[in-house]
Amino acid sequence: LNPDRFLRRELPTLLRRSAEKLAEVVGADSEDVVFVPNISHGVNAVLRSMDLQEGDEVLCMNSTYPGVFNTLRHICYMTQEVVELKVVDVKLPLESYESLIQQLAAAITPNTRVAVLDHITSAAALVLPLDKLIPLFQKRGIPVLVDGANAPGQVPLDLRQLKPDFYVGTCNKWLFGSKSSSFLYVDKEHQSMVRPVVTSLSYNQGFIEEFAVQGTKDESNYLTICTAIDFYQNLGYNRVCAHNKSLIDWASSYLASLWGTEALLPPWQRAPFASAIRLPIQWPVKANGEPLTADEQCQVCCFVMDILLDYYQLATKVIPIEGSLYVRISAQIYNERADFERLGVAIQGLTNCSSFIEMFSTMRQLSIAMCIILDECVLLIVLSLQALTILPAIAVTREVGLAVLSLYLITALFSVTYAFLYTLRECCPCINALQRHGSKFFYVLHIGLIATTVATISILLEPFLSGVDFSEYCLTNALDHNLSSTGCLKLQGYTVVALMTLTLEVGLSVYMLVLGRRISKKHAVEYARLVREKSLSDAELPSVVRGNNSFQKKTGKATHGTTAEVI
């Protein structure tokens, strides 16, 4: 129960125990395995430890995970671009593994310094033949860094047999580990070269020690690895594999048949537990026929994913591949056929729209309407409370109270009209102009109501602040005109109640200003959307069609940007 003892003495032992357990699963010696928070840390540790010189080349594929690709781009940028990033443009599906090997072999030059390969690609779920690719590079003296984020737990792994120079993998994807529980394998030949991203107290104390001590951090995530592996082994790999593979095979066939499309990869190329299915949505192009930029592609994919998550409670990955939109599906032991049937129905619902403009408009209107309806309900409740707070003042001093009530009624009528502009926009052509300028009147009316209410409060406070006995004041002041049959004692009580309720009314009016500001922002967004949609034609936007669409071929531009050479 001593935390200091645990951190200093017990934790290092427990961490190495986790590393030993993990090393057994991935087929490696425990002294070759260290923990890193994620794949990005591991990749950065390896690449930043390399002494890249002018003229060197770093080779990768166009399927490289964007986070890893950005690291490669940054390293080339840091070297003032004297190091070239060469991207091999691999078309999917593969004709054969042999054709892939030949294409990568042709990309190797005497300047190739390191090759960065995926074990299983993130987007397409393509399994690379590492048993053939790693020797291809190593025979030429080129070290290989493998991004194995999606491999541990999905495919049997034996690093002693594969013999990569560097291998980065995760435990949280398919091994049931917690977040931030990844590992880095480094061949003994390179361990003296590789340094962690963070240099700390264990500098120059050896490979394991340097990665173990990288400043103060929470390492409990690594301690879950033993339990996660035990859980996986108790389930049995064969049992997990049988369930996941049969489910993903069925889902791929079912969705492709339902949508009238096809899976990107044949079973012998793709990962056991994942698959990419083409969506029945034609890939968008600009009005002039040019393809979308990488950022624009990401926006379209994120939009479709947001719709699936927000309106159908489905989490999946939508990605652009070979000129088409694909959805990458995965199967784990907690999934069942009903999950993929819901996805199929959801995508069909999206493709019922005749164009992207209709799909964007429909979903955006639904989202805005739900938010504004909530604000409308809140506004009605607050207005009702305001009416109740004014009534006691009328009972005490009718003239002033009726003046406040009259201003309140005008303010309430305009507030309701203004708040319901979105709902009423189809009924009146002047609504759009009111959406733009109504906020000014909204603020003026509510500020006027606040000022009038404060003035009324000052009138009602006068008997208490004048220093005269309230009964004497009652006899000489107009306060008793409304309640001539009521004694001054009761009138005093009514006045106190009126003061309290009017003070509450001021608070409610201030809240109405805040609520009005929120509503006006939403109206501004909605008005801008309407103007934008009127200025656009369907010809400028990609059409969404159902059925079996042909692929739109790429124009040879780099998938990840313009800083890399695509070959």
Automatic annotation (TrEMBL):
Transmembrane segments: 366-394, 400-421, 441-461, 491-514
Keyword Lipoprotein tagged: no
Gene3D superfamilies membership: Aspartate Aminotransferase, domain 1, Type I PLP-dependent aspartate aminotransferase-like (Major domain)
UniProt keyword Protein biosynthesis, yes or no: no
Coiled-coil region: none
A Pfam family hit: Aminotran_5
InterPro entries named in the record: Aminotrans_V_dom, PyrdxlP-dep_Trfase, PyrdxlP-dep_Trfase_major, PyrdxlP-dep_Trfase_small
Keywords: Membrane, Pyridoxal phosphate, Transmembrane, Transmembrane helix
SUPFAM superfamilies xrefs: PLP-dependent transferases
Residue span(s) of domain Aminotransferase class V: 15-266
Protein name per UniProt: Aminotransferase class V domain-containing protein
Organism placement in taxonomy: Eukaryota, Sar, Stramenopiles, Oomycota, Saprolegniomycetes
